Task: inverse folding
């Protein structure tokens, strides 16, 4: 398991792998602009998804997704507008905002990945 400063990046990689196994195609990882970032931007069929990944280690008392609040969602929406302006997409019927929660349980204890679709 990576050190704590690497845990977030490791979680993003696990989330990306999970979503790809579920049929999503990753368009971008770690989209950053002044004012915020989007961890993953994925697509499946005609749906574009902006994904916040939250990763917590074995000592965390709260589930990873509990760290996504209304302020974070507002920043995601702002960053999504930037991305859409830079990347006009043909054939996109809709877009949404999701959270992928990655809970690492400890060495030799595995992890849990939860995909929460359509957060608001």
Result:
């Amino acid at each position: 398991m990576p050190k704590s400063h690497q845990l977030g990046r490791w979680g993003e990689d696990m989330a990306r792998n999970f979503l790809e196994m579920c049929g999503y195609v990753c368009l971008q990882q770690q989209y950053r602009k002044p004012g915020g970032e989007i961890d993953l931007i994925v697509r499946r069929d005609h749906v574009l998804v902006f994904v916040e990944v939250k990763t917590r280690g074995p000592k965390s008392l709260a589930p990873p997704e509990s760290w996504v609040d209304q302020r974070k969602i507002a920043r995601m929406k702002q960053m999504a507008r930037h991305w859409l302006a830079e990347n006009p997409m043909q054939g996109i019927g809709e877009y949404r905002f999701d959270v992928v929660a990655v809970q690492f349980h400890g060495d030799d204890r595995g992890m849990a990945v939860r995909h929460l679709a359509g957060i608001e």
About this structure: The chain has a mean pLDDT of 88. The domain at 4-116 is CATH 3.40.1350.10 (Trna Endonuclease; Chain: A, domain 1). The CA atoms of residues 4 and 57 lie 8 Å apart. The longest helix spans residues 4-21.
